[in-house]
Amino acid sequence: MARGPASSLFRVYAYKKNSSRIRVLLCNQQYITTSSTSFGQYHHRGASQNPFLSSSFHVPNRPFSTNLITLACLGLISQRKNVLGSDYFHVKPFSSVAEDGDGDVNDNSEGGRTDLVDLGCEFDADSGKSIDFDNENEVTSCHEEEDGVYEDFDSAMAELDNDSVDGEGAANGEGYVHVACRNPLELYRELRDTENGVKLRRSDWVTLTETFGVLSRSGWASDQALAIYIGKAFFPTAVQKFKKFFFKKCSADVAKYLVTLGPADAAVKFLFPIFVEYCLEEFPNEIKQFQGMVESADLTKPHTWFPFARAMKRKIIYHCGPTNSGKTYNALQRFMEAKKGLYCSPLRLLAMEVFDKVNALGVYCSLQTGQEKKYIPFSNHTSCTVEMVSTDELYDVAVIDEIQMMADPSRGYAWTRALLGLKADEIHLCGDPSVLNIVRKICSDTGDELYEQHYERFKPLVVEAKTLLGDLRNVRSGDCVVAFSRREIFEVKMAIERYTNHRCCVIYGALPPETRRQQANLFNDQDNEFDVLVASDAVGMGLNLNIRRVVFYSVSKYNGDKVVPVSASQVKQIAGRAGRRGSIYPDGLTTTLHLNDLDYLIECLKQPFDDVKKVGLFPFFEQVEMFASKLQDVSLSQLLEKFGQNCRLDGSYFLCRHDHIKKVANMLEKVQELSLEDRFNFCFAPVNIRDPKAMYHLVRFASAYSQKVPVNIYMGMPKASASNDAELLDLESKHQVVSMYLWLSQHFERENFPYVQKAETMATDIAGLLAESLVKANWKPESRKTGKPMPQQKADVYDRPRSLIKLKEK
Ligand SMILES: Nc1ncnc2c1ncn2[C@@H]1O[C@H](COP(=O)(O)OP(=O)(O)OP(=O)(O)O)[C@@H](O)[C@H]1O
Ligand SMILES: [Mg+2]
User: Which residue intervals define the domain Helicase ATP-binding in the entry (predicted)?
Assistant: First the structure.
């Protein structure tokens, strides 16, 4: 068996065709020795003399080259200890490895020992079968070999071995290092300095072409390339150029080896470091430019963005608990006691509710939402929406309500910014426990003191197992039926009012907050006939309504793409509206319309709160501007796209979704004279991008603004309340336009928007008309008209609303 008898070196070559088939041929002892530190973490104890001797060994799923080293060592170790589990592969003992008296494998470092040679065998994890090699390392028997790859491989290997034997210094097995074991930089330089590469056989050329295809599509490789500032967009081009270079320069042994590996991950892992060397030399400008871009899109360490807040010693109090447990109530107590306080709300409606409540209790409080600013003389307190938080003002106490919204995919950044940036001695966070861990982490980054106050629900929420048995005639006074689309809301309202004596109020997202508030008051007030509320998930956050029972009309909703189950946390939030302390129904009930949705409801209520791992971030304009300076001739939408692709974030943060902003930016492309900053700010205006009327007006506002003419609202005012759904939709959309104008007037120089008063009057009038319309609304939702005509319903039989039937049929 011995080959190169006097050699203190041996070679192992590992070939991994798939995860269970590993071939060990030869390895250069020197190589193992020098690389032993790289897997030092995998062995312990007993490594005193020979670093490969270990009493236990874990075979990691490592990159190919590490496996190579590991295998070589494992062979030695198994020889001595037989410790390898057979899960990974069976090790055929290396009969040629001698043991000394105490059973240790001879330490090669002693020098002159010649017995560590010729380690030729192949291992198969599944079968345990091995392929034996004779001492010239040519296959002597090849069990269960089916395809020709192995044969090619074997002959390639045999050739390589022969080359090494014939080559310089090979007589004793020294000097030859297989390409897989060689330094990639060296390999790259060799390729680069070669005049002409080897002429490839057609079949090899095909294999190599496929291999480059795999490299170019490899997510692993494009991720790794980011480390040397090869961006994802440039990566395929870089691979393409590398491929050209490679085909021109490739040497016989590299080509042969790659062909052996085939178009697989192992080949990508082998090629990648060479590719890196190539890129570093070939694309210095691209790398520099991308590096500049990446560095300007650095969103890591967001707590350092607020040096003033960092200079303060803030006290953070987390009011942590489920819905209706008194979190907001307790935080507001501190807010009202403070000399100067700020309350940050997730919704305009809730900001208004707190504004009213606090003023009613004798604490002067102003209101600040995106659309309106109500300054109460002598007030030191402000109730605002979280997006309007000022990180410049100093406060004694600030309250950030619904803090779990930090994890909201689109709006989360506003909560994160408030928490990181508020300059307040005391900050009260109210929310469920889902973001508690991440708040702990953020506080340890910011150096703020965190106090936790845990709450329990005042009264447990009771699930009514009977459900409404699919029949809306089982609705009772004090019920809130929750549906997840405007269309369903009107269908339910119509059905209830048609088949029962109840009257319904409605609350949904597209209604202005004034109208929602009017509807909520109508429902809360016991002295009228409106005793049922039909609402969307817009009712879910923080509001205090006189709800006895929350009935889920359905437990799935359309997410803009497909119908998906409503999330457990949302179900909890919504169901939590029932039975508020202090309301006329302090015992909360919840159920579903249909029996077959009940299990899902119970499951959601039972589920523990998520443990959120990341919260949202979005760059300030200044960051986007800095990023823009690294690019030329790109639109804002492209800029944001690129920012999203290239920004760096810490593990606790994600970049908030901004498709909506990009769409608005695209629409505004036709407005030419806007500065980048104005354009950026316009994109945050509250507009329904699916409403062409609203989009038209936004573009008009932006055009007038860019031409420095006073921005006016040219829109006919409706004369009367709606008498059908089209008119109702028109009112909703007109209110949005006015609301957008008001928002712009708050976010840009006021003198450019001189018609604020007119807009406010229009907004109030439209909200009034909407309220009037909703009281009498008993028509089919507009979108229904485009569908097939419905069969006539029998007057006395309640029929389930059609959209639900369709959903269930699906
Ligand atoms: N100590 C208290 N005394 C009187 N009323 C209270 C007290 N605590 C809470 N309430 C009332 O109970 C209701 C629910 O309280 P609160 O709004 O603070 O709950 P929450 O935990 O913030 O709920 P959510 O998660 O839904 O926002 C409110 O109407 C509030 O005024
Ligand atoms: Mg609350």
Answer: 308-424
